[in-house]
Specification:
By secondary structure, the chain is α/β, with parallel strands linked by helices. The protein has 13 helices and eight strands. Helix 4 crosses helix 5. The two termini are about 40 Å apart.
């Protein structure tokens, strides 16, 4: 039996519930699932369209443009290959508009010019479809690009000039003129790039779509977690005050167990790969548990996890076998078990040492890793993190 008590050092759990912005392993896995599901849906849609001769796949072409590593240093002649996709299936040449899908902190796919709202609008308006991969992500990177000394060339400012150079390249390649109206599209970080591109180069792009775009860098990006809490009490999507209260109680109970010397039992209850003996491992565990709620709110009914309504159902379910904090604790254990049943991992890795080791790894992998690059960007440009007087920890989020 886990011994529950209220700890005076509990404030770092409130940080997780109210101001938490780090993307732990679980949220990263949820994001991967969503992306894979979107790709599967896009593939199915394309097969349907191909069967009706509406959009043959041969219209999509992949290319590379050699960009300067440092646009702001004319003496640096080094370049890197930046990947892009072009879809001419709907383009009403020569005067049709141009829709540019901007890549963010991850790889682009051919489906980025084959499916989505911007593609539907391109079909309606006869637009040329483009997608440009962000420097240092996906395949748009030199073999030694992740070494620390080379990451200095990774920034949103460099990326914006990449977009301007790409605009010129495409304009020359397709003999475009002022009659071809450019619109840019992006979501989250790439949405911010879309807005910044319009602001910095208004003569190049007529309009920008910036979905869920954090256009202002924030050192303390508590707004993300505030939105999670607001969603958990929103009755329109299945939330309630009781739900958020239950979440708070559950995390308070987990922290009490950890502070009370019951880390071994907590590790068993939540299926951890190791016992969270020190504070860093404990925070890794709490981050990953918080990911379940953040992933639920961020993707709700995408079909990769429980919806807000279902999660709140678990967190408010009355268990007569327990009372108070222990009851809330058991609900969170149940929710974690539900998530784990959909996961391919045998256990939950909460090793902070492994997290740091992964971030220090400069090798390129077929999985097109993004954590090292995005951590560098948040630490050098945006913040998007929270600090706390006890943990003194700044943790960045995948937005």
């Amino acid at each position: 039996m886990v011994n529950m008590f209220f700890s005076p050092a509990r404030c770092f759990i409130l940080l997780l519930l109210l101001n938490f912005t780090d993307a732990g392993r679980i949220l990263k896995k949820i994001k991967e699932r969503v992306r894979n599901l979107q790709l599967q849906k896009a593939k199915q849609l394309l097969l349907t369209r191909a069967a009706s001769d509406r959009q043959p796949l041969q219209h999509v072409k992949e290319g590379r443009i050699h960009q300067q590593l440092d646009h702001f240093n004319r003496q640096d002649v080094n370049t890197f290959p930046q990947r892009f996709f072009v879809n001419e299936a709907f383009w009403q040449s020569p005067d049709g508009p141009v829709f540019l899908f901007i890549g963010g902190e991850g790889p682009i796919f051919d489906f980025d010019v084959l499916a989505g709202h911007h593609v539907d609008m391109a079909e309606e308006h006869g637009a040329l479809l483009l997608a440009l991969e962000h420097r240092f992500y996906g395949d748009s990177i030199n073999p030694d690009g992740l070494k620390t000394e080379n990451l200095a060339d990774l920034s949103s400012q460099q990326a914006l000039v990449d977009l301007a150079v790409f605009h010129q390249y495409i304009s020359q390649s397709f003999n475009l003129s002022h009659r071809n109206t450019w619109l840019s599209f992006g979501g989250s970080y790439s949405g911010a790039l879309s807005a910044w591109f319009r602001g910095k180069f208004p003569h190049l792009v007529y309009g920008a779509v910036a979905s869920s775009a954090p256009v202002k860098a924030r050192l303390d990006f508590s707004a993300y977690s505030n939105t999670v809490g607001t969603s958990l009490v929103n009755e329109a999507v299945g939330g309630s005050e009781k739900c958020l209260s239950g979440v708070r109680e559950a995390f308070a109970a987990v922290e009490a167990a950890l502070m009370g010397g019951n880390a071994s039992q907590v590790a068993v209850d939540f299926g951890c790969c190791q016992i969270p003996k020190d504070r860093d491992d404990q925070i890794e565990l709490l981050q990953n548990l918080a990911d379940i709620f953040m992933g639920t709110v961020q993707y709700n009914e995408e079909g990769v996890l429980l919806s807000i309504n279902e999660v709140c159902g678990v967190m408010t379910n009355k268990n007569e076998a327990y009372e108070g904090e222990l009851e809330a604790y058991s609900r969170l254990v149940k929710l974690a078990q539900i998530y784990h049943s959909t996961s391919e991992e045998p256990c939950l890795d909460i090793s902070h040492e492994k997290t740091m080791k992964d971030l220090m790894d400069t090798s390129l992998h077929p999985g097109r890793r993004v954590e090292r690059q995005w951590t560098y960007q948040t630490c050098t440009e945006f913040g998007f993190c929270t600090t706390h007087r006890h943990t003194h920890k700044c943790t960045a989020t995948h937005i």
